[in-house]
Design goal:
Structural class: alpha/beta
Distance between the termini: 96 Å
Helix content: 25-40%
Number of helices: 14
Shape: globular
Strand content: 15-25%
Protein backbone atom coordinates (compact mmCIF):
# COMPACT_ATOMS: atom_id res chain seq x y z
CA UNK A 1 0.00 0.00 0.00
CA UNK A 2 2.81 2.39 0.91
CA UNK A 3 4.60 1.67 -2.38
CA UNK A 4 1.37 2.25 -4.33
CA UNK A 5 0.76 5.54 -2.52
CA UNK A 6 4.31 6.71 -3.32
CA UNK A 7 3.78 5.88 -6.99
CA UNK A 8 0.51 7.83 -7.08
CA UNK A 9 2.19 10.87 -5.50
CA UNK A 10 5.09 10.64 -8.00
CA UNK A 11 2.69 10.47 -10.97
CA UNK A 12 0.69 13.47 -9.73
CA UNK A 13 3.90 15.45 -9.09
CA UNK A 14 5.31 14.58 -12.53
CA UNK A 15 2.05 15.60 -14.21
CA UNK A 16 2.10 18.91 -12.37
CA UNK A 17 5.72 19.56 -13.43
CA UNK A 18 4.98 18.76 -17.09
CA UNK A 19 1.91 21.04 -17.00
CA UNK A 20 3.98 23.85 -15.47
CA UNK A 21 6.75 23.39 -18.06
CA UNK A 22 4.26 23.64 -20.93
CA UNK A 23 2.73 26.80 -19.43
CA UNK A 24 6.18 28.42 -19.02
CA UNK A 25 7.11 27.51 -22.60
CA UNK A 26 3.83 29.00 -23.88
CA UNK A 27 4.46 32.22 -21.93
CA UNK A 28 8.03 32.44 -23.29
CA UNK A 29 6.76 32.03 -26.86
CA UNK A 30 4.06 34.68 -26.41
CA UNK A 31 6.56 37.13 -24.92
CA UNK A 32 8.85 36.71 -27.92
CA UNK A 33 5.90 37.28 -30.28
CA UNK A 34 4.88 40.41 -28.37
CA UNK A 35 8.36 41.93 -28.61
CA UNK A 36 8.53 41.04 -32.32
CA UNK A 37 5.13 42.62 -33.02
CA UNK A 38 6.05 45.81 -31.16
CA UNK A 39 9.29 46.12 -33.11
CA UNK A 40 7.44 45.43 -36.39
CA UNK A 41 4.85 48.10 -35.61
CA UNK A 42 7.64 50.59 -34.95
CA UNK A 43 9.06 50.10 -38.45
CA UNK A 44 5.77 50.14 -40.34
CA UNK A 45 5.94 52.99 -42.89
CA UNK A 46 2.47 54.38 -42.15
CA UNK A 47 3.31 54.38 -38.43
CA UNK A 48 6.50 56.33 -39.10
CA UNK A 49 4.47 59.00 -40.89
CA UNK A 50 1.98 59.19 -38.04
CA UNK A 51 4.84 59.19 -35.56
CA UNK A 52 6.35 62.31 -37.16
CA UNK A 53 2.95 63.99 -37.03
CA UNK A 54 2.48 62.86 -33.44
CA UNK A 55 5.86 64.23 -32.32
CA UNK A 56 4.98 67.63 -33.80
CA UNK A 57 1.72 67.56 -31.85
CA UNK A 58 3.53 66.52 -28.66
CA UNK A 59 5.90 69.47 -28.80
CA UNK A 60 3.25 72.02 -29.72
CA UNK A 61 0.19 70.85 -27.76
CA UNK A 62 1.97 69.06 -24.92
CA UNK A 63 0.03 66.82 -22.54
CA UNK A 64 -3.41 67.39 -21.03
CA UNK A 65 -5.34 65.67 -18.27
CA UNK A 66 -8.87 65.59 -16.88
CA UNK A 67 -9.45 63.85 -13.56
CA UNK A 68 -12.60 62.84 -11.68
CA UNK A 69 -12.67 61.95 -7.99
CA UNK A 70 -12.21 63.54 -4.59
CA UNK A 71 -8.98 61.78 -3.57
CA UNK A 72 -6.43 59.33 -4.87
CA UNK A 73 -8.51 56.29 -3.89
CA UNK A 74 -11.52 57.19 -6.05
CA UNK A 75 -9.82 59.26 -8.75
CA UNK A 76 -9.36 58.29 -12.39
CA UNK A 77 -7.64 60.43 -15.00
CA UNK A 78 -7.92 60.74 -18.76
CA UNK A 79 -4.68 61.87 -20.40
CA UNK A 80 -3.84 63.19 -23.81
CA UNK A 81 -0.21 62.67 -24.86
CA UNK A 82 1.05 60.87 -21.74
CA UNK A 83 4.48 59.28 -22.15
CA UNK A 84 6.45 56.60 -20.28
CA UNK A 85 10.26 56.57 -20.20
CA UNK A 86 11.53 53.06 -19.31
CA UNK A 87 15.05 54.25 -18.51
CA UNK A 88 13.68 56.45 -15.72
CA UNK A 89 10.70 54.21 -14.92
CA UNK A 90 8.52 57.31 -15.04
CA UNK A 91 5.44 58.66 -16.75
CA UNK A 92 5.97 62.22 -17.97
CA UNK A 93 3.55 65.10 -18.53
CA UNK A 94 4.70 67.50 -21.23
CA UNK A 95 3.78 71.06 -20.27
CA UNK A 96 2.96 73.60 -22.93
CA UNK A 97 0.85 76.73 -23.14
CA UNK A 98 -1.90 74.52 -24.57
CA UNK A 99 -1.90 71.96 -21.74
CA UNK A 100 -5.20 71.44 -19.93
CA UNK A 101 -5.08 70.29 -16.29
CA UNK A 102 -8.63 69.78 -15.03
CA UNK A 103 -9.37 68.05 -11.75
CA UNK A 104 -5.79 67.80 -10.51
CA UNK A 105 -5.56 68.13 -6.71
CA UNK A 106 -3.56 70.97 -5.22
CA UNK A 107 -1.04 68.45 -3.90
CA UNK A 108 -0.90 65.34 -6.07
CA UNK A 109 1.89 63.87 -3.94
CA UNK A 110 -0.24 63.37 -0.81
CA UNK A 111 0.28 60.49 -1.20
CA UNK A 112 -0.36 60.11 -4.95
CA UNK A 113 -2.51 61.25 -7.84
CA UNK A 114 -4.40 57.94 -8.02
CA UNK A 115 -4.31 54.18 -7.43
CA UNK A 116 -3.34 52.16 -10.51
CA UNK A 117 -5.19 49.06 -9.31
CA UNK A 118 -8.61 48.45 -7.79
CA UNK A 119 -7.06 47.71 -4.38
CA UNK A 120 -7.62 50.76 -2.25
CA UNK A 121 -4.68 52.86 -1.03
CA UNK A 122 -1.91 50.27 -1.37
CA UNK A 123 1.44 52.04 -1.52
CA UNK A 124 2.75 49.74 -4.26
CA UNK A 125 -0.07 50.85 -6.56
CA UNK A 126 0.36 54.64 -6.53
CA UNK A 127 0.55 56.62 -9.77
CA UNK A 128 2.04 60.00 -10.50
CA UNK A 129 3.80 61.75 -13.34
CA UNK A 130 6.98 63.79 -13.73
CA UNK A 131 6.75 67.32 -15.12
CA UNK A 132 8.75 68.07 -18.29
CA UNK A 133 8.55 71.12 -20.60
CA UNK A 134 7.26 69.98 -23.98
CA UNK A 135 9.91 72.07 -25.72
CA UNK A 136 12.71 69.97 -24.20
CA UNK A 137 11.22 66.57 -25.06
CA UNK A 138 13.70 64.36 -26.90
CA UNK A 139 11.88 62.68 -29.76
CA UNK A 140 14.54 60.49 -31.37
CA UNK A 141 13.63 57.25 -29.59
CA UNK A 142 9.83 57.23 -29.32
CA UNK A 143 7.06 54.75 -30.03
CA UNK A 144 3.42 55.61 -29.65
CA UNK A 145 -0.08 54.20 -29.40
CA UNK A 146 -2.76 56.30 -31.07
CA UNK A 147 -5.87 54.29 -30.17
CA UNK A 148 -7.52 54.55 -26.74
CA UNK A 149 -5.51 52.94 -23.95
CA UNK A 150 -6.29 51.71 -20.45
CA UNK A 151 -3.20 51.76 -18.22
CA UNK A 152 -3.39 49.91 -14.91
CA UNK A 153 -1.67 47.52 -12.52
CA UNK A 154 -2.60 43.92 -11.95
CA UNK A 155 -2.55 43.35 -8.21
CA UNK A 156 -1.67 39.67 -7.89
CA UNK A 157 -1.76 38.04 -11.33
CA UNK A 158 -0.69 34.61 -10.05
CA UNK A 159 -3.92 34.15 -8.04
CA UNK A 160 -7.21 33.59 -9.88
CA UNK A 161 -9.28 35.21 -7.10
CA UNK A 162 -7.24 38.40 -7.42
CA UNK A 163 -7.31 38.22 -11.22
CA UNK A 164 -11.12 38.09 -11.36
CA UNK A 165 -11.94 40.32 -8.38
CA UNK A 166 -9.15 42.91 -8.53
CA UNK A 167 -8.50 43.09 -12.27
CA UNK A 168 -11.00 41.65 -14.75
CA UNK A 169 -14.27 42.78 -13.18
CA UNK A 170 -12.89 46.32 -12.59
CA UNK A 171 -11.54 46.39 -16.18
CA UNK A 172 -14.99 45.45 -17.45
CA UNK A 173 -16.64 48.16 -15.36
CA UNK A 174 -14.04 50.82 -16.20
CA UNK A 175 -14.24 50.20 -19.94
CA UNK A 176 -18.03 50.42 -19.83
CA UNK A 177 -17.96 53.59 -17.75
CA UNK A 178 -15.22 55.64 -19.37
CA UNK A 179 -14.91 54.41 -22.97
CA UNK A 180 -17.15 53.42 -25.87
CA UNK A 181 -16.84 49.74 -24.89
CA UNK A 182 -20.24 48.04 -25.07
CA UNK A 183 -21.50 45.09 -23.04
CA UNK A 184 -21.12 42.24 -25.49
CA UNK A 185 -18.74 39.47 -26.41
CA UNK A 186 -17.06 41.75 -28.97
CA UNK A 187 -13.46 42.68 -28.23
CA UNK A 188 -12.63 46.36 -28.24
CA UNK A 189 -10.25 48.82 -29.84
CA UNK A 190 -8.91 49.75 -26.40
CA UNK A 191 -5.26 48.87 -25.81
CA UNK A 192 -4.53 47.37 -22.37
CA UNK A 193 -1.18 48.33 -20.83
CA UNK A 194 -0.26 46.39 -17.68
CA UNK A 195 2.32 48.36 -15.72
CA UNK A 196 2.93 46.56 -12.42
CA UNK A 197 5.95 44.68 -13.75
CA UNK A 198 4.92 41.11 -12.89
CA UNK A 199 5.66 38.28 -15.34
CA UNK A 200 2.95 37.59 -17.91
CA UNK A 201 1.52 34.77 -15.78
CA UNK A 202 -0.99 32.00 -16.44
CA UNK A 203 -4.05 34.17 -17.10
CA UNK A 204 -3.04 36.27 -20.09
CA UNK A 205 -5.91 34.79 -22.11
CA UNK A 206 -8.47 36.32 -19.75
CA UNK A 207 -7.04 39.85 -20.03
CA UNK A 208 -6.81 39.50 -23.80
CA UNK A 209 -10.60 39.06 -23.99
CA UNK A 210 -11.00 42.82 -23.57
CA UNK A 211 -8.94 44.01 -26.52
CA UNK A 212 -8.24 43.16 -30.14
CA UNK A 213 -4.72 44.51 -29.62
CA UNK A 214 -1.96 42.38 -28.15
CA UNK A 215 -1.46 43.17 -24.48
CA UNK A 216 1.45 45.44 -23.62
CA UNK A 217 3.33 44.61 -20.41
CA UNK A 218 5.77 46.84 -18.59
CA UNK A 219 8.54 44.33 -19.24
CA UNK A 220 7.84 44.60 -22.99
CA UNK A 221 8.40 48.36 -22.85
CA UNK A 222 11.58 47.95 -20.84
CA UNK A 223 12.85 45.30 -23.26
CA UNK A 224 12.11 47.58 -26.21
CA UNK A 225 13.99 50.39 -24.44
CA UNK A 226 12.12 53.21 -26.18
CA UNK A 227 9.90 55.95 -24.82
CA UNK A 228 6.27 54.98 -25.29
CA UNK A 229 3.63 57.70 -25.65
CA UNK A 230 -0.14 57.36 -25.48
CA UNK A 231 -2.32 59.73 -27.46
CA UNK A 232 -5.49 58.88 -25.50
CA UNK A 233 -5.00 57.12 -22.15
CA UNK A 234 -7.17 56.32 -19.14
CA UNK A 235 -5.16 55.54 -16.01
CA UNK A 236 -6.38 53.42 -13.10
CA UNK A 237 -9.30 51.10 -12.43
CA UNK A 238 -12.66 51.79 -10.85
CA UNK A 239 -13.21 50.24 -7.42
CA UNK A 240 -17.01 50.24 -7.75
CA UNK A 241 -17.30 46.47 -8.27
CA UNK A 242 -14.86 45.24 -5.60
CA UNK A 243 -16.69 43.45 -2.82
CA UNK A 244 -13.81 42.42 -0.52
CA UNK A 245 -10.77 44.02 1.12
CA UNK A 246 -7.78 41.91 2.10
CA UNK A 247 -6.84 43.31 5.49
CA UNK A 248 -3.97 45.70 4.80
CA UNK A 249 -5.13 48.33 7.31
CA UNK A 250 -7.82 46.40 9.20
CA UNK A 251 -8.78 42.71 9.36
CA UNK A 252 -10.11 41.48 6.03
CA UNK A 253 -13.81 41.67 5.29
CA UNK A 254 -16.52 42.86 2.89
CA UNK A 255 -16.14 46.28 1.25
CA UNK A 256 -18.82 48.52 2.74
CA UNK A 257 -21.29 49.96 0.23
CA UNK A 258 -20.00 47.95 -2.72
CA UNK A 259 -21.85 48.92 -5.90
CA UNK A 260 -21.67 45.43 -7.38
CA UNK A 261 -25.06 43.91 -8.18
CA UNK A 262 -25.95 40.38 -9.21
CA UNK A 263 -27.18 41.68 -12.57
CA UNK A 264 -23.82 43.28 -13.27
CA UNK A 265 -21.95 40.18 -12.12
CA UNK A 266 -24.06 38.04 -14.44
CA UNK A 267 -23.28 40.32 -17.40
CA UNK A 268 -19.57 40.11 -16.62
CA UNK A 269 -19.76 36.31 -16.31
CA UNK A 270 -21.58 36.10 -19.64
CA UNK A 271 -18.87 38.25 -21.26
CA UNK A 272 -16.13 35.92 -19.98
CA UNK A 273 -18.03 32.77 -20.95
CA UNK A 274 -18.70 34.07 -24.45
CA UNK A 275 -15.10 35.16 -24.89
CA UNK A 276 -13.81 31.74 -23.85
CA UNK A 277 -16.48 29.94 -25.93
CA UNK A 278 -17.86 28.27 -22.83
CA UNK A 279 -20.92 26.16 -23.63
CA UNK A 280 -23.45 26.70 -20.83
CA UNK A 281 -26.37 24.30 -20.50
CA UNK A 282 -27.15 24.86 -16.82
CA UNK A 283 -30.45 26.44 -15.87
CA UNK A 284 -32.32 26.27 -12.59
CA UNK A 285 -34.74 23.77 -14.20
CA UNK A 286 -31.96 21.54 -15.57
CA UNK A 287 -31.88 18.20 -13.75
CA UNK A 288 -28.55 17.12 -15.24
CA UNK A 289 -26.38 19.49 -13.25
CA UNK A 290 -23.69 17.82 -11.16
CA UNK A 291 -21.39 18.32 -8.18
CA UNK A 292 -17.88 19.78 -8.56
CA UNK A 293 -15.22 19.15 -5.94
CA UNK A 294 -12.37 21.69 -6.13
CA UNK A 295 -9.40 19.52 -5.27
CA UNK A 296 -5.96 20.51 -4.05
CA UNK A 297 -3.02 18.21 -4.73
CA UNK A 298 -0.14 19.88 -2.90
CA UNK A 299 -1.52 21.46 0.29
CA UNK A 300 -4.75 22.06 2.22
CA UNK A 301 -5.61 18.49 1.30
CA UNK A 302 -8.91 16.75 2.00
CA UNK A 303 -7.38 13.54 3.34
CA UNK A 304 -10.57 11.53 2.84
CA UNK A 305 -11.42 13.03 -0.54
CA UNK A 306 -12.37 9.68 -2.10
CA UNK A 307 -14.73 8.90 0.78
CA UNK A 308 -16.35 12.34 0.39
CA UNK A 309 -16.70 11.95 -3.39
CA UNK A 310 -18.34 8.53 -3.12
CA UNK A 311 -20.73 9.72 -0.39
CA UNK A 312 -21.77 12.72 -2.52
CA UNK A 313 -22.49 10.55 -5.56
CA UNK A 314 -24.37 7.95 -3.52
CA UNK A 315 -26.44 10.46 -1.52
CA UNK A 316 -27.46 12.85 -4.31
CA UNK A 317 -27.56 10.32 -7.18
CA UNK A 318 -25.47 12.47 -9.47
CA UNK A 319 -21.98 12.49 -10.88
CA UNK A 320 -19.18 14.20 -8.97
CA UNK A 321 -16.41 15.86 -11.00
CA UNK A 322 -13.06 16.66 -9.40
CA UNK A 323 -11.04 19.55 -10.83
CA UNK A 324 -7.75 21.13 -9.80
CA UNK A 325 -5.00 23.41 -11.09
CA UNK A 326 -2.77 20.36 -11.45
CA UNK A 327 -5.14 18.43 -13.71
CA UNK A 328 -7.24 21.04 -15.55
CA UNK A 329 -6.79 24.31 -17.40
CA UNK A 330 -8.63 27.34 -16.06
CA UNK A 331 -10.92 27.34 -19.10
CA UNK A 332 -11.80 23.70 -18.45
CA UNK A 333 -12.60 24.49 -14.83
CA UNK A 334 -14.80 27.47 -15.78
CA UNK A 335 -16.62 25.23 -18.27
CA UNK A 336 -17.16 22.59 -15.61
CA UNK A 337 -18.33 24.96 -12.89
CA UNK A 338 -20.63 26.86 -15.29
CA UNK A 339 -22.80 23.76 -15.63
CA UNK A 340 -22.66 22.54 -12.03
CA UNK A 341 -25.30 22.52 -9.31
CA UNK A 342 -23.01 22.28 -6.26
CA UNK A 343 -19.41 23.41 -5.75
CA UNK A 344 -17.38 22.22 -2.75
CA UNK A 345 -13.84 23.24 -1.85
CA UNK A 346 -11.39 24.15 0.87
CA UNK A 347 -11.01 27.92 1.41
CA UNK A 348 -8.85 29.13 -1.46
CA UNK A 349 -8.77 31.06 -4.70
CA UNK A 350 -10.55 28.46 -6.86
CA UNK A 351 -13.80 29.11 -5.01
CA UNK A 352 -14.07 32.42 -6.89
CA UNK A 353 -15.15 30.32 -9.87
CA UNK A 354 -18.50 29.94 -8.12
CA UNK A 355 -19.37 33.29 -9.75
CA UNK A 356 -19.92 31.21 -12.91
CA UNK A 357 -22.65 29.09 -11.32
CA UNK A 358 -26.19 29.39 -12.63
CA UNK A 359 -28.94 30.52 -10.28
CA UNK A 360 -30.26 27.98 -7.75
CA UNK A 361 -26.81 26.61 -6.96
CA UNK A 362 -24.97 25.67 -3.79
CA UNK A 363 -21.47 26.53 -2.53
CA UNK A 364 -19.91 24.64 0.39
CA UNK A 365 -16.65 26.14 1.71
CA UNK A 366 -14.47 23.99 3.98
CA UNK A 367 -12.19 25.44 6.66
CA UNK A 368 -9.33 23.70 8.49
CA UNK A 369 -9.08 23.46 12.27
CA UNK A 370 -8.92 26.75 14.23
CA UNK A 371 -9.89 28.89 11.18
CA UNK A 372 -13.14 30.74 11.86
CA UNK A 373 -15.26 31.02 8.67
CA UNK A 374 -16.77 34.30 9.86
CA UNK A 375 -13.36 36.00 9.59
CA UNK A 376 -12.64 34.98 5.98
CA UNK A 377 -15.67 35.66 3.80
CA UNK A 378 -14.79 36.65 0.20
CA UNK A 379 -16.84 33.82 -1.30
CA UNK A 380 -19.68 34.06 1.21
CA UNK A 381 -19.90 37.81 0.48
CA UNK A 382 -20.06 37.16 -3.26
CA UNK A 383 -22.63 34.35 -2.96
CA UNK A 384 -24.84 36.51 -0.75
CA UNK A 385 -25.09 39.42 -3.20
CA UNK A 386 -28.89 39.74 -3.61
CA UNK A 387 -29.96 38.02 -6.81
CA UNK A 388 -26.95 35.72 -7.21
CA UNK A 389 -29.21 32.76 -6.49
CA UNK A 390 -26.50 30.87 -4.58
CA UNK A 391 -27.07 29.12 -1.24
CA UNK A 392 -23.80 29.33 0.69
CA UNK A 393 -22.74 27.16 3.63
CA UNK A 394 -19.42 26.81 5.46
CA UNK A 395 -18.02 23.82 7.34
CA UNK A 396 -15.30 24.11 9.98
CA UNK A 397 -13.16 21.32 11.39
CA UNK A 398 -13.52 21.48 15.19
CA UNK A 399 -11.72 18.21 15.91
CA UNK A 400 -7.92 18.62 16.31
CA UNK A 401 -7.43 14.88 15.82
CA UNK A 402 -8.71 15.29 12.23
CA UNK A 403 -5.99 17.70 11.19
CA UNK A 404 -2.41 17.23 9.98
CA UNK A 405 -0.11 20.21 10.51
CA UNK A 406 3.17 21.00 8.76
CA UNK A 407 5.41 22.97 11.14
CA UNK A 408 8.44 22.11 8.99
CA UNK A 409 7.11 23.86 5.89
CA UNK A 410 8.72 27.06 4.60
CA UNK A 411 7.30 30.07 6.53
CA UNK A 412 5.22 31.25 3.57
CA UNK A 413 3.56 27.81 3.50
CA UNK A 414 2.72 27.74 7.19
CA UNK A 415 6.00 26.55 8.69
CA UNK A 416 6.74 27.80 12.21
CA UNK A 417 10.05 26.19 13.16
CA UNK A 418 11.86 29.48 12.53
CA UNK A 419 9.87 31.08 15.37
CA UNK A 420 10.82 31.12 19.08
CA UNK A 421 9.73 27.94 20.86
CA UNK A 422 7.22 29.70 23.12
CA UNK A 423 5.49 31.25 20.10
CA UNK A 424 5.47 27.89 18.33
CA UNK A 425 3.82 26.34 21.38
CA UNK A 426 1.19 29.08 21.55
CA UNK A 427 0.31 28.58 17.89
CA UNK A 428 0.17 24.79 18.19
CA UNK A 429 -2.12 24.97 21.23
CA UNK A 430 -4.47 27.70 19.97
CA UNK A 431 -7.98 26.66 18.95
CA UNK A 432 -8.75 29.77 16.87
CA UNK A 433 -6.65 32.11 14.77
CA UNK A 434 -7.13 35.66 16.11
CA UNK A 435 -8.15 38.36 13.65
CA UNK A 436 -5.05 39.73 11.94
CA UNK A 437 -3.76 41.91 9.12
CA UNK A 438 -2.56 40.68 5.75
CA UNK A 439 -0.45 38.89 4.75
CA UNK A 440 2.17 36.95 6.70
CA UNK A 441 0.62 36.22 10.09
CA UNK A 442 2.36 32.96 11.13
CA UNK A 443 -0.61 31.48 12.99
CA UNK A 444 -2.94 32.10 10.03
CA UNK A 445 -0.48 30.51 7.59
CA UNK A 446 0.16 27.55 9.91
CA UNK A 447 -3.56 26.77 10.16
CA UNK A 448 -4.67 27.46 6.59
CA UNK A 449 -2.02 25.06 5.20
CA UNK A 450 -3.22 22.14 7.32
CA UNK A 451 -4.60 18.97 5.76
CA UNK A 452 -7.98 17.81 7.02
CA UNK A 453 -10.10 14.72 7.43
CA UNK A 454 -13.53 16.22 6.80
CA UNK A 455 -16.72 15.09 8.54
CA UNK A 456 -18.61 13.68 5.55
CA UNK A 457 -21.96 13.36 7.33
CA UNK A 458 -21.87 17.00 8.45
CA UNK A 459 -21.14 18.18 4.91
CA UNK A 460 -24.02 16.12 3.53
CA UNK A 461 -26.35 17.74 6.07
CA UNK A 462 -25.17 21.21 4.99
CA UNK A 463 -25.86 20.38 1.36
CA UNK A 464 -29.36 19.10 2.16
CA UNK A 465 -30.12 22.36 4.02
CA UNK A 466 -28.77 24.47 1.17
CA UNK A 467 -30.77 22.56 -1.44
CA UNK A 468 -33.89 23.03 0.64
CA UNK A 469 -33.16 26.77 0.76
CA UNK A 470 -32.95 27.17 -3.00
CA UNK A 471 -36.04 25.00 -3.56
CA UNK A 472 -38.12 27.26 -1.31
CA UNK A 473 -36.55 30.56 -2.43
CA UNK A 474 -38.06 32.77 -5.17
CA UNK A 475 -37.40 31.63 -8.71
CA UNK A 476 -35.03 33.57 -10.98
CA UNK A 477 -37.77 35.59 -12.72
CA UNK A 478 -39.19 36.62 -9.35
CA UNK A 479 -35.75 37.60 -8.09
CA UNK A 480 -35.12 39.73 -11.17
CA UNK A 481 -38.49 41.44 -10.77
CA UNK A 482 -37.89 42.16 -7.07
CA UNK A 483 -34.43 43.54 -7.79
CA UNK A 484 -35.83 45.78 -10.50
CA UNK A 485 -38.43 47.12 -8.06
CA UNK A 486 -35.70 47.69 -5.47
CA UNK A 487 -33.95 50.15 -7.80
CA UNK A 488 -37.11 52.15 -8.63
CA UNK A 489 -38.19 55.18 -6.61
CA UNK A 490 -41.34 57.29 -6.56
CA UNK A 491 -41.26 60.74 -8.08
CA UNK A 492 -42.22 63.80 -6.01
CA UNK A 493 -45.82 64.14 -4.83
CA UNK A 494 -47.91 66.45 -7.00
CA UNK A 495 -49.98 69.54 -6.26
CA UNK A 496 -48.89 69.94 -2.64
CA UNK A 497 -50.98 72.73 -1.09
CA UNK A 498 -52.32 74.06 2.19
CA UNK A 499 -55.98 75.11 2.36
CA UNK A 500 -56.63 77.94 4.85
CA UNK A 501 -60.41 77.69 4.43
CA UNK A 502 -60.53 74.07 5.56
CA UNK A 503 -58.14 74.82 8.41
CA UNK A 504 -60.36 77.60 9.71
CA UNK A 505 -63.36 75.28 9.86
CA UNK A 506 -61.83 74.01 13.10
CA UNK A 507 -62.14 75.73 16.44
CA UNK A 508 -58.46 74.96 17.13
CA UNK A 509 -55.51 76.39 15.25
CA UNK A 510 -54.83 73.92 12.45
CA UNK A 511 -53.13 73.37 9.14
CA UNK A 512 -54.80 71.42 6.31
CA UNK A 513 -52.50 69.83 3.70
CA UNK A 514 -53.34 67.86 0.58
CA UNK A 515 -51.41 66.45 -2.37
CA UNK A 516 -51.67 63.97 -5.22
CA UNK A 517 -49.61 60.77 -5.42
CA UNK A 518 -46.43 60.70 -7.54
CA UNK A 519 -47.32 60.28 -11.19
CA UNK A 520 -45.15 57.16 -11.64
CA UNK A 521 -46.73 55.12 -8.82
CA UNK A 522 -49.02 53.14 -11.19
CA UNK A 523 -45.94 51.99 -13.10
CA UNK A 524 -44.01 50.64 -10.10
CA UNK A 525 -46.19 47.71 -8.97
CA UNK A 526 -45.69 48.66 -5.30
CA UNK A 527 -47.08 46.84 -2.28
CA UNK A 528 -47.21 49.83 0.08
CA UNK A 529 -47.37 53.63 -0.33
CA UNK A 530 -46.75 56.01 2.57
CA UNK A 531 -46.15 59.74 2.90
CA UNK A 532 -43.71 61.40 5.28
CA UNK A 533 -44.74 64.95 6.20
CA UNK A 534 -42.31 67.40 7.85
CA UNK A 535 -43.62 70.70 9.28
CA UNK A 536 -41.32 73.44 10.58
CA UNK A 537 -42.18 76.90 11.93
CA UNK A 538 -40.11 79.42 9.98
CA UNK A 539 -38.93 80.91 13.28
CA UNK A 540 -37.74 77.57 14.71
CA UNK A 541 -35.03 75.04 13.94
CA UNK A 542 -37.18 72.17 15.18
CA UNK A 543 -39.68 70.27 13.06
CA UNK A 544 -42.34 67.62 13.55
CA UNK A 545 -42.75 64.56 11.37
CA UNK A 546 -45.67 62.28 10.51
CA UNK A 547 -45.99 59.16 8.36
CA UNK A 548 -49.41 58.81 6.68
CA UNK A 549 -51.14 56.53 4.22
CA UNK A 550 -53.68 59.10 2.92
CA UNK A 551 -53.03 62.14 0.72
CA UNK A 552 -54.51 64.76 3.04
CA UNK A 553 -54.48 65.60 6.73
CA UNK A 554 -55.46 68.35 9.16
CA UNK A 555 -52.60 69.06 11.60
CA UNK A 556 -53.18 70.74 14.95
CA UNK A 557 -50.20 69.75 17.10
CA UNK A 558 -47.85 72.73 17.47
CA UNK A 559 -49.79 74.82 14.92
CA UNK A 560 -50.32 78.50 15.81
CA UNK A 561 -52.38 80.93 13.77
CA UNK A 562 -50.72 83.84 12.00
CA UNK A 563 -47.50 81.82 11.61
CA UNK A 564 -45.67 80.60 8.53
CA UNK A 565 -44.61 76.95 8.10
CA UNK A 566 -42.17 75.12 5.85
CA UNK A 567 -43.78 71.95 4.50
CA UNK A 568 -41.96 68.97 2.99
CA UNK A 569 -43.71 65.82 1.81
CA UNK A 570 -41.95 62.62 0.68
CA UNK A 571 -43.44 59.48 -0.84
CA UNK A 572 -42.13 56.16 0.52
CA UNK A 573 -42.84 52.87 -1.28
CA UNK A 574 -42.47 49.35 0.09
CA UNK A 575 -41.46 50.78 3.46
CA UNK A 576 -37.97 51.91 2.41
CA UNK A 577 -37.69 53.53 -1.04
CA UNK A 578 -38.00 57.26 -0.38
CA UNK A 579 -38.47 59.60 -3.31
CA UNK A 580 -37.60 63.32 -3.62
CA UNK A 581 -39.52 65.88 -1.58
CA UNK A 582 -42.13 68.42 -2.59
CA UNK A 583 -42.10 71.75 -0.76
CA UNK A 584 -44.46 74.57 -0.04
CA UNK A 585 -44.64 77.51 2.38
CA UNK A 586 -47.94 77.82 4.29
CA UNK A 587 -49.36 80.99 5.85
CA UNK A 588 -51.82 80.35 8.70
Amino acid sequence: MAYKAICIVMVITLAALVHKYMELYRQYTELQETIHDMMSDTHNQSDIYRQDKFIVELKSSGSSVKCLGQNHTDRMCHFKNLCYIPHNDAFIFLHSVHSVKDGLPENRFDPALLDMSSVKDHNTQYFNFVDVPASTFESDNVDYIIHPTLIFNRFNPSNVMHVLHDDLLPIYYTLNLYTSFEISHQITDVQLVLMEGHPVGDYRELYQLFSKHRLVFKNDIIENNRTLCFKDAFVGLSKATTWYQYGFTEPQGPVPHSQLTAAYMHRFVKFIQDGLHIHVTATHENKDRYIVLLSRKLNRLILNEIELTMALARTFHTKVLTVSFETHSLVDMIQTVSNAKIVIGVHGSLLVLSMFLASNSVVIELFPYAVNPENYTPYKTMANIPGMGIAYRSWRNTNPSNTVTHPGNPPEMGGIQHLPEDLQSNIMNSDEVPKHLCCSDPEWLFRIYQDTVVAVSEILELIHAALNEIETSPQEDELIESLLRKDMYPSAVQNLSCDPDKAFDSVDDSLFLSWNPPWNIPHLNVSQVQYEVLIQDVNSSDYKAWVLTQTWCKFTEGIVSKHKYHIWVYCIINGKQRGPHSYTLCHI
